[in-house]
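Possible regression after last week's pipeline update?

I re-ran a chain I had predicted before the update to compare outputs. Posting the input and the new output here so someone can diff against the archived version. Not blocking, just want to make sure nothing changed silently.
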Amino acid sequence: MTFRPVASAELTRALVIKLRHHGDVLLTTPVFSALKRFAPQCEIDALIYDETAEMLTGHPDIAQIHTIGRNLRKRGAGERLRREWRLFESLRARHYDLIVHLTGSWRGAWLARGLRPRYSVASFSPLLPPGRLWADSFTRLAPTPPLGNRHTVECHLDALRALGIQPPADARRLVFEPGEDARSRIAALLAPYNIPPGQLIHIHPASRWMFKAWHVAGYAELIANLEERGYRTVLTTGPALREMELAKEIIGCCRIAPIDLSGRLTLKQLGAVIASARLSVCVDSVPMHMAAALGTPVVALFGPSNENEWGPWQVPQRVLVSGHTCRPCRLDGCGGGKVSECMTALRSADVLAAIEGLLAETA
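New output (post-update):
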């Protein structure tokens, strides 16, 4: 079959599907930017889980955000069917010319068949070749490198490349907009601390998966060293109980307590904190990607996951990893035991040195 690139004039509406977690959705934002750059007249929609919607609201190149309840499967069959049909009807009314499916979910394949766009593309791993039914659901397939050494952002953009759309370098930035309400709220929360400009350092110690976390003693020592050097530290976590318990443990071990905003912020407010900071210290988690989107320098601690695949994207950074030859193993802790030795082996002195080096570099 002769390859024919998609023509810009052929696209009036497109749908990008990413049914994954918050960070995964944020890493799709360059797809919208690059597609809009290619076809300025095209209205580009997103289909994502409802809990991840804040990752995309405020993106200037997204026309509509369609959402699916992640817990829809827990409802009765009749309610699920009604909601699925309403979603399908709302998508069909948009008359898409293009569907870009960025996960292995069968929902994208069924939508590509049911909505019948002129063009549709899906990513796949050559290690797991798609079956005939899957492959025949799309007009193009975009292979992703099998070794995990290509960044996820570029893998997403490969779906456009499979259509003959070459994303320009300046359209590959992550996009996240906290919004004025969140910025004002955070400014009010931080005002009583009278923090000098450039002296706030953000620390987000947790992830949805705790096997990616560093140890309490390391965070406590790091916070003390930064506070003694004249920086103010602000500690954030998500609202999950285990994340807030981690923050409580860290604060209980600190000689000098950080500003504690753990469990108190919306995602947009968390973004506003990160935007206010001189530097952000994170594990592999959505706040790390938010910092990259907001241009805040990042010191990132990586263990079982692959920094080449998931590291901070296009932002001043230091990535710390251990010398364990087994990483990145992608396992949920050594032996599946929920604790990763490649994370606990990282030294506070090395993290502090990385912070100081990055601060000097970005001064």
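Follow-up from reviewer: compared with the archived run. The chain has a mean pLDDT of 94. Marking as no regression found.
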